[in-house]
Amino acid sequence: MKQEVTRQKKGAWSLDEVEYVTEPQKEVIMGDDGRIEGRTINPPPEGAFIHGLYLEGAGWSKTEKKLEDSEPKVLYKEFPIIHVSAASTAVQTGPGLGSKGKQDDRSQEKSSYSCPVYKYPKRTDKYLIFRVSLRCDAQGGSSTLARGVTPAMNWKLKGAALLCCKE
Q1: Quick one: 40 exposed, middle or buried, by C-beta within 10 A (0-12, 13-18, 19+)?
Q2: What string of H, E and C letters represents the secondary structure of 51-89?
Q3: pTM exceeds 0.85 for this model
Q4: CA-CA distance, 151 to 112, in Å (whole number)?
Q5: pLDDT digit string (tens) for 125-143?
Q6: Between 151-158 and 102-111, two packed helices, what is the crossing angle to 10 degrees?
Q7: Superfamily of domain 2-163
Q8: What is 118-156 written as a DSSP string?
């Protein structure tokens, strides 16, 4: 995905300075044909849609698009479509253009969980595909966080991950 988006920018971006950008959608595709209740989804202008993932170790709020505690006795939750694209991380300088501050990065780090996507439930680096940034709040779901534990760390400790298959 990084390579395809970098090619579309025709030399403006370097592949070394590109990272994934992910945005979960509201719709869930149940079948393999790429349709939602008889309706076809048009492809995005840049990037790709991914569907068919399962969320393990957490639940998902479709309305608020954020992680929440899983329902009792539910091991896997079908995850909505994810729009995956890429963005340049190169520092842009010039009039009116400033680099992102470290403070912005830290607040983004605390409010979003870098969720790993694995090919199989066996969680090893061999089966890690990439990471998806998912929003999480202290108020949503785990409201009783231990002192010093950020919402993102809470989901890491719970082992929340996206899986391509359940077996």
Answers
A1: exposed
A2: CCCEEECCEEECCCCEEECCCCCCCEEECCCEEEEEEEC
A3: no
A4: 8
A5: 999 999 999 998 755 444 5
A6: 40
A7: Dynein motor C sequence, barrel region (3.10.490.20)
A8: ESSSS--GGGEEEEEEEE--SSSS---PPTT--HHHHHH
